[in-house]
Write a sequence for this structure.
């Protein structure tokens, strides 16, 4: 059995050191607490423990932590806390079962901080890149109310709904992006390799070429002779737009364009309203103060225009106004949303109204994504046909003209 060297404090505040044998660091910490000691540090000793605690060569998957990983973490954490397991032991179990290396390292630090006397909330606050303000505020509310397992169930359900919406948005956006990229690649190949072969035939035939053919041949010459410049210009435009989007004005311009897009704009608006309503509903249900809840909602809105509207709403509430009026004045929320919020405030059922709004708009997102998928497919086929068809027709028009002359 591994041996652990520990430093702890007794009830009188004196520092005590010693060696404890236990199957894990978490169990050793629990043994010390049962003896009335407060663990300060627990480290693996030299005697027979290294082999037992040796880390495998491949510890897990690399890459960023996904929303689905946090869903599993929250759900398992709630189940084991409800079963009565000590928090440190639960964190240790979840660390061993985590697939992501980054999550493993994070949970190891969280476990160490808790053993050193930090609360769960304080330990999570040291990892803002993994646990955002919403997650930390919910855990804080759960610890304060003694209902951490129930709050974590709410968090898991919320994250599942957000992950589901994100998957639907990716599906709606990725399909046209892939088909569009394929169409551009085919067009580039035809202009780069096929058009020059036809150009040699046209030179042998002589005569004046049709306008469509001249356009295609000119595009072929431009790509063949100036492709490095074209590539650099496109790369500079993409990088410039990407950097501009990171600025304050750029982010707001991007989000404004996104909401005004003819096909995807209404979908993005429904997603933003659904996310706002769901997040605020869950935070209010957990007992988070309305001002703190609005600040968290703004940070997790996913759209800078919604974020600005929520922050202005927070400032208006601090000045004594209701929630519904500044939301309506912002112009970012549909009248149905603001009126239901107003009714919820007047009847004391704001949490339920927000939940119903979120359910309605999540259903709307499902319906809109299904409609877009059925609408985009024929449009993309037409787009691909026009691009390829233009090149093919422009190449065969001189041949048709030659056949007419021969006839």
């Amino acid at each position: 059995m591994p041996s652990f060297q520990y430093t702890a404090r007794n009830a009188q505040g004196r520092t005590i050191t010693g060696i404890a044998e236990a199957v894990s660091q978490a169990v050793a910490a629990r043994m010390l607490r049962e003896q009335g000691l407060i663990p300060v540090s627990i480290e693996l000793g030299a005697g027979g423990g290294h082999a037992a605690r040796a880390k495998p060569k491949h510890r897990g998957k690399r890459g960023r932590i996904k929303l689905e990983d946090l869903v599993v973490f929250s759900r398992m954490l709630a189940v084991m806390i409800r079963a009565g397991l000590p928090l440190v032991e639960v964190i240790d179990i979840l660390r061993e079962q985590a697939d992501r290396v980054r999550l493993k390292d994070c949970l190891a630090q969280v476990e160490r901080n808790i053993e050193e006397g930090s609360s769960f909330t304080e330990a999570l606050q040291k990892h803002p890149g993994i646990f955002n303000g919403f997650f930390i505020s919910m855990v804080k509310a759960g610890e304060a109310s003694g209902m951490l397992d129930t709050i974590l169930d709410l968090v898991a359900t919320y994250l599942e709904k957000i992950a589901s919406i994100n998957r639907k948005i990716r599906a709606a956006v990725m399909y046209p992006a892939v088909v569009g990229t394929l169409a551009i690649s085919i067009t580039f190949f035809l202009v780069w390799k096929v058009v020059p072969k036809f150009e040699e035939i046209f030179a042998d035939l002589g005569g004046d070429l049709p306008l469509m053919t001249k356009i295609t041949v000119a595009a072929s010459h431009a790509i063949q002779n100036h492709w490095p410049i074209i590539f650099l210009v496109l790369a500079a435009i993409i990088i410039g737009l990407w950097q501009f989007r990171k600025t304050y004005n750029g982010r707001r311009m991007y989000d404004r364009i996104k909401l005004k897009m003819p096909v995807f704009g209404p979908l993005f608006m429904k997603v933003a309203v659904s996310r706002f309503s769901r997040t605020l509903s869950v935070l209010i249900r957990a007992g988070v103060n309305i001002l703190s809840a609005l600040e968290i909602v703004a940070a997790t809105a996913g759209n800078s225009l919604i974020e600005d509207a929520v922050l202005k709403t927070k400032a208006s509430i601090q000045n004594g106004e209701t929630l519904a009026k500044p939301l309506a004045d912002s112009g970012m929320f549909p009248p149905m949303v603001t009126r239901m919020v107003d009714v919820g405030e007047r009847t004391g059922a704001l949490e339920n109204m927000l939940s119903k709004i979120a359910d309605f708009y999540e259903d709307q997102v499902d319906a809109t994504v299904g409609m877009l998928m059925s609408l985009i497919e024929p449009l993309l086929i037409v787009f691909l046909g026009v691009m390829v068809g233009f090149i093919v027709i422009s190449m065969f028009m001189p041949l048709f003209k030659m056949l007419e002359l021969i006839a």
Confidence is low (pLDDT under 50) at residues 46-58. The first strand starts at residue 3 and ends at 9. The longest helix spans residues 148-205.
